[in-house]
Specification:
With 122 residues, this protein is of the alpha+beta class. The protein is 37% helix and 23% strand. The mean pLDDT is 93.
């Protein structure tokens, strides 16, 4: 049975030492962008919730960090994320490369707009 995590700290602690700061940097980027987001575990990976909705998920894999879901964006955003698309709703950031935190921030901002619009808050 796969390991079950109750917190993002538990998830990060389970990772190889070299990967922990990478995942923690994504966590910090989201936390800075949305200070009122709530940390959670969903699908056994880190998730931030905002206004009761899943805002962003991220998880460490053998060779990459997966970030989900890809929000709808501008043509410029679509072009920027194109090299990282790895399937429907999935971005993969190779562990060998620096994390594009600007993309993570843009994803969070776009997801917030999607959530606000779907809730009729826009």
């Amino acid at each position: 049975m796969p390991q079950q995590f109750a917190t993002i700290d538990e998830y990060i602690d389970s990772l190889p030492a070299a990967v922990r700061p990478i995942v923690d940097s994504i966590r910090a980027t989201v936390r800075t962008a949305v200070p009122d987001a709530v940390e959670d575990i969903s699908y056994q990976m880190p998730c931030f919730k905002w206004r009761g909705n899943n805002l962003i998920h991220f998880g460490a894999w053998k060779n990459h960090i997966g970030v989900y879901p890809i929000p709808a964006g501008t043509p410029a955003f679509e072009k920027k994320v194109a090299p990282y698309i790895a399937g429907k709703g999935t971005l993969r950031f190779p562990l060998r490369d620096p994390i594009p935190h600007d993309i993570v921030r843009a994803m969070v901002a776009l997801r917030m707009k999607e959530i606000a619009t779907s809730a009729g808050c826009d």
